[in-house]
Amino acid sequence: MCSHNSFNNEMCSHSRCCECIRCCGRRDPRPRTVWLCHPEKRDQRYPRNVINNQKYNFFTFLPGVLFNQFKYFFNLYFLLLACSQFVPEMRLGALYTYWVPLGFVLAVTIIREAVEEIRCYVRDKEVNSQIYSKLTARGTMKVKSSNIQVGDLIIVEKNQRVPADMIFLRTSEKNGSCFLRTDQLDGETDWKLRLPVTCTQRLPTASVSSFLVKDLWFKLTFFEDSDPPVNESLSIENTLWASTVIASGTVVGVVLYTGRELRSVMNTSNPRSKIGLFDLEVNCLTKILFGALVVVSLVMVALQHFAGRWYLQIIRFILLFSNIIPISLRVNLDMGKIVYSWMIRKDSKIPGTVVRSSTIPEQLGRISYLLTDKTGTLTQNEMVFKRLHLGTVAYGLDSMDEVQSHIFSIYTQQSQDPPALKGPTLATKVRKTMSSRVHEAVKAIALCHNVTPVYESNGVTDQAEAERHFEDSCRVYQASSPDEVALVQWTESVGLTLVGRDQSSMQLRTPGGQILNFTILQIFPFTYESKRMGIIVRDESTGEITFYMKGADVVMAGIVQYNDWLEEECGNMAREGLRVLVVAKKSLMEEQYQDFEARYVQAKLSVHDRSLKVATVIESLEMEMELLCLTGVEDQLQTDVRPTLETLRNAGIKVWMLTGDKLETATCTAKNAHLVTRTQDIHIFRLVTNRGEAHLELNAFRRKHDCALVISGDSLEVCLKFYEYEFMELACQCPAVVCCRCTPTQKAQIVHLLQERTGKLTCAVGDGGNDVSMIQEADCGVGVEGKEGKQASLAADFSVTQFKHLGRLLMVHGRNSYKRSAALSQFVIHRSLCISTMQAVFSSVFYFASVPLYQGFLIIGYSTIYTMFPVFSLVLDKDVKSEVAMLYPELYKDLLKGRPLSYKTFLIWVLISIYQGSIIMYGALLLFESEFVHIVAISFTSLILTELLMVALTIQTWHWLMIVAELLSLSCYIASLVFLHEFIDVYFIATLSFLWKVTVITLVSCLPLYVLKYLRRRFSPPSYSKLTS
């Protein structure tokens, strides 16, 4: 092999450029020397090129899951309780009564986590195992994505994913460029243009196939030994980012970054284990119950006057009353979550919805802020040409045939080329003038763009033939902006078709089939700062040089000649939700252009202030341009976006739109989607760069009321740096907020700040890789899965196929999940408090002895087979039908206050439990005749019946499974009495005396509550009952 010194230096300069391009990196940028296909010569270690979205690995899985379980007070308490039974002085019953329930809880959690981890592993393995071709000195070889290293020369075929961050060296495309699809990264379906490094693209090759094997390698070797060494600057156009897809041709690139150093990975935060607010509230209630448990135990020992080994007595009482904190609560809630997830997946109204995180369905019922992406989430990213405005006349969709006839008449007249009429009528002159104006406008739109027509074989015609004959059925337009494609498709529909383009020329076809050739002399691409793009072309047939320009009305108003209609019409079209572009032209003389070109080339070679000098030269042309027309393009919204946003707004949810798109486009979409209502003002936060400007702008914003805010990412960064608290306070008061030009990291930062400042729950919705950080940071992440790829939906907690499904997901499933879990948790606590109250009464009557009331199987059976099914059937309960919940989103607003599970409802259930437990125990003590066994029989039977009746009292809408559960539990108890002769006198329960005593006790414990419930519904009904009656 030849020496690598010169290319080594060259790649060093490559890497310096690339390090500067990288954004959001976690380390300082350093130059990188890349050795082509010589990993042994590398001076530092680089990470493996593996994608890893798992939370644990094989060794950390069990410790990690157990740690996450026992870091919560609830589970740690039961672990200590179970361990205490190994000490003989503390043992109260069989070991299995403590270890079996705990083991079951842990087993359910471990299995659920394992299933989610395995799914994640399989998805990652699929990506890491993709096969690529690698160029070596001995030809090509196959290599897995995970085995690709820095310095490898990788061939990426059309429609193949780019496996790592690479420098683009070579393409098979004739026009010397390629297009990328970035939908997996940013959700945008428009294609991005990329250019190879000029010196590697220029290397001569006999054919595409030879360039794909040894030829390129040896040409590179030759290139490395060139004297003097070739130095070439790189720009973002020479890069191929990982996870983008090659849309045209076959490319060769050299790998620069792999694994965790990839740009997309560094822009994404690590996935975190999300814990629902509901689970934290339940955890808080268990701490209160533990406090009550300790107090009751201390009172019992105090009433014994701390006699003997009182400290052991305290521990025994704590164990005796341990039922106050029910272990079945965790089991019931976890199983409830699984049921809610199953219901979401099986809902035919939201097909394709996937629950990826089954631990937080209750979060969906309490969302206060919804943060959504724009492109691909609210919009389809499909542009439709809606309006052409010439000042005196406007053409809409219904009058495009008039535009077509004008174009047709111009070109038929030109082809016939009739002799000049002696005395043309006034009408002819007017019509001719209008035709020529329309023609000039359409021609400008057909020429001023960055669109490339590409021909593909359609099964009938092959690619080469289609390209030669400009076959319409084989042509697709490629561009970095969907707006431009829409404009070019429209010019095709009215008769002027873009049929060919390369770096230096363009071909248009007229309605008559004639080909018009234009030479591209200069292109001035669109930038965020300039808000316009321009092109200088020479018509080959006439030699005329024309400078065409299109851009936003704010900048074009100062460039075009004076007119009285531009501002007004732009405002009218913007109010209709259209994206408006102003199109203008200027004819140039040959000398004028030559003078401009000389100055332009000189400016481009400047070392200092190059961009400023270039802009100044271009601006010298941008004066007194002739205004041709306005174009109005609509970015079509996803289906039912408007009613969905309306529903969310009525439900008390504030919607923020975070997008990487331009300010004008974002504002347009916000109006179009009715994110901002017609009556609301919009405050556009002007660009601020320092503390003083930010202060003035915030003061100006503070004076506005009920006003939507539109702010750019740069201004946002300045505000958050100096006035974080003030800005968030003002923004949270807005009915809607639009943040444009946001980076992925900024999106996540906004979500975090909202959580921190408001303490409210946030939900993030997105569809591209640039939304992953935001989705993972939010309390509840929803990914929209569609043609934009799956990166966001795979990282999300919930995945939907359309934005409109979000309404039902929150209003119906979120609301039901939260209300059901609240009822279930309070009922399980009530069930355990009842039996604990009975134990307290029993111990106090029998001289404060730490003796259990119920032994062995009775205590386990009570919380499992005797009451488990009816209590768990509460997960099927609902207060209103799903149609009513969708029709009245105001019902959702009630949940935002957290009333279904609050200290007030908890206290009510505690009082009910104490009342019922006391009535049952005292009733049994009063009515029993001779033997202690009779107390157990009467009290336990009354307790079971009371629980079954209380479930019936709590249910709002009966389901057939609830009735089955009630009857099954009762049957299980009656049938098991035969085997419980150790605890219950079987002969006594068959007597009439037993039956009337149980009936009386049960009625006294339940009847007052039924009466209270009736009176409450009669005189103070809840809001939902008014809708169901």
TrEMBL record:
Gene3D superfamilies reported in the protein's UniProt record: Calcium-transporting ATPase, cytoplasmic domain N, Calcium-transporting ATPase, cytoplasmic transduction domain A, HAD superfamily/HAD-like
SUPFAM superfamilies to which the protein is assigned, alphabetical: Calcium ATPase, transduction domain A, Calcium ATPase, transmembrane domain M, HAD-like, Metal cation-transporting ATPase, ATP-binding domain N
Domain P-type ATPase N-terminal: 40-99
Record bears the keyword Nucleotide-binding: yes
Binding-site residues, Mg(2+): D373, T375, D767, D771
Domain of life of the source: Eukaryota
Main location: Golgi
Biological process according to GO: endocytosis; negative regulation of exosomal secretion; neuron projection morphogenesis; phospholipid translocation; regulation of endocytic recycling; regulation of retrograde transport, endosome to Golgi; retrograde vesicle-mediated transport, Golgi to endoplasmic reticulum
Statement: the UniProt record of this protein carries the keyword 4Fe-4S: no
Enzyme Commission no: 7.6.2.1
MF GO annotations: ATP binding; ATP hydrolysis activity; ATPase-coupled intramembrane lipid transporter activity; magnesium ion binding; protease binding
P-type ATPase C-terminal domain segment(s): 794-1021
Enzyme class name: translocase
Catalytic activity: ATP + H2O + phospholipidSide 1 = ADP + phosphate + phospholipidSide 2
Cofactor(s) the protein needs: Mg(2+)
Gene Ontology terms: cellular component: early endosome membrane; late endosome; perinuclear region of cytoplasm; plasma membrane; recycling endosome membrane; trans-Golgi network membrane
Subcellular location: Golgi apparatus, trans-Golgi network membrane; Membrane
Keywords associated with the record: ATP-binding, Golgi apparatus, Lipid transport, Magnesium, Membrane, Metal-binding, Nucleotide-binding, Translocase, Transmembrane, Transmembrane helix, Transport
Binding-site residues for ATP, renumbered to this chain: D373, K374, T375, E484, F526, K550, R579, T659, G660, D661, R741, K747, N770, D771
Residue intervals of the P-type ATPase A domain: 135-261
UniProt-annotated catalytic positions: D373 (4-aspartylphosphate intermediate)
Membrane topology: Multi-pass membrane protein
Transmembrane segments: 58-80, 92-111, 280-304, 310-333, 828-848, 854-876, 906-926, 932-953, 960-980, 986-1012
Sequence similarity: Belongs to the cation transport ATPase (P-type) (TC 3.A.3) family. Type IV subfamily.
PANTHER family per the UniProt record, alphabetical: PHOSPHOLIPID-TRANSPORTING ATPASE IIA-RELATED, PROBABLE PHOSPHOLIPID-TRANSPORTING ATPASE
Protein name: Phospholipid-transporting ATPase
Source organism: Sphenodon punctatus
Name of the gene encoding the protein in the UniProt record: ATP9A
